[in-house]
Design brief:
- The chain has 332 residues and is mostly helical.
- The chain contains 14 helices and five strands.
- It has a three-stranded parallel β-sheet.
- Helix 3 packs across helix 13, helix 4 runs parallel beside helix 14 and helix 8 packs across helix 9.
Length: 332
């Protein structure tokens, strides 16, 4: 028996990198315990990138391949594109009719993101961006999900989903919607190879789909102890990006490497070479699985079509109950 229902999604705004692996590994585990629905939420991508959608389809395809490569199983959990399940948009509309604007304006990320993206020249003071958390709530509640895996930065959105569920149930005298609970997973805080936040736009990321050559090149770019000139100089692992990665991905050897670094018994070149090997071994089975799906475009199409069909079936059940509760289900 499954413990409950999970919904989770990601915006298709670019390639995924190894910083996403801890989140995706958690999803893979959840699909063994819960009935999961995984959505590539393309409408959400439009809330901040509505002016340039030229790469949307490529990003959707890349995200699907990344998800499948890490082990998401379409036979266990529907995988779909949000815009192909129109029930999400109808529930979003119906929720918007009963939701005070003040609830949205107090979401912590709203003004902050308008400011931050405004500094980048983006004007996102739009109706769609203001309503972003309502659409997110519709994504969750359309499947009556009771568990949502999120990072701490999304906790305010999950709280809003609970408030929307409570308000709907109170207004329409029903217990239709559960109050979804956040499932916080341990997420490795992985810096980019230059020490900044890992991002495709900085070219400091290591893609999940990276080849052996790309991995080696990225590791060579990693910032090490600037005070260490010669191989025999004692190093300071605490300020070395390579050591940060060794600590996360090479736990069995990290203490030995740390000791040898501090004593000057291992140089940065050898340390980087060992890390590149470890990362390559970790990503090799993902590349193999990805290649399997890349060579079968018809299978990718079937996965998305089947996932959307299964999602629409469940979403349709919820939406009919919502229409009945709100008395907008035509009876004439």
């Amino acid at each position: 028996m499954k413990k409950g229902v999970v919904f989770s999604g990601m915006r298709p705004t670019g390639r995924l990198h190894i910083g996403h692996l801890s989140v995706l590994d958690n999803w893979v585990k959840l699909q063994e315990e819960f009935q999961c629905y995984f959505g590539i939420v393309d409408w959400h991508a439009l809330t901040t990138d509505f002016e340039n959608t030229s790469e949307m389809q490529d990003n959707i395809r890349m995200m699907l391949l990344d998800w499948l490569s890490v082990g998401l199983d379409p036979l266990k959990s529907p995988i779909f594109v949000q815009s192909q399940v129109k029930e999400h948009s109808e529930l979003h509309l119906l929720f918007s009719m009963m939701l005070p604007v003040s609830w949205l304006e107090r979401v912590p990320s709203y003004k902050d993101q308008i400011l931050q993206l405004g500094l980048q020249g983006k004007d996102i003071a739009t109706y769609g961006f203001l309503g972003y958390p309502v659409l997110m709530s519709a994504d969750i509640l359309i499947y009556r999900a009771n568990v949502v895996p999120v990072g701490e930065d999304q906790l305010a959105h999950i709280e809003l989903s609970r408030e929307i569920a409570r308000r709907f149930n109170y207004l329409y005298k029903t217990d239709l919607f559960p109050e979804p609970q956040a499932r916080l997973a341990k997420v490795a805080l992985l810096p980019g190879v230059d020490g900044r936040k890992m991002s495709k736009s900085y070219n400091n990321d290591i893609p999940i789909a990276a080849t052996s050559k790309e991995i080696s090149e990225k590791v060579q770019m990693m910032v090490t102890d600037p005070a260490r000139i010669k191989k025999t100089d004692p190093g300071n692992p605490e300020i070395c990006i390579v050591h940060t990665y060794q600590n996360i991905y090479n736990a069995s050897e990290v203490e030995e490497i740390r000791t040898n670094c501090k004593s000057g018994n291992i140089g940065c070149v050898a340390c980087k070479k060992r890390l590149a090997t470890v990362l390559d071994e970790m990503l090799a089975p993902l590349r193999e699985r990805r290649s399997y799906y890349e060579e079968r475009p018809n299978l990718l199409h079937d996965i998305i079509e089947t996932g959307a069909k299964e999602a629409r079936k469940e979403a349709g059940k919820t939406l009919e109950l919502v229409r009945t509760a709100m008395n907008v289900s035509l009876k004439i």
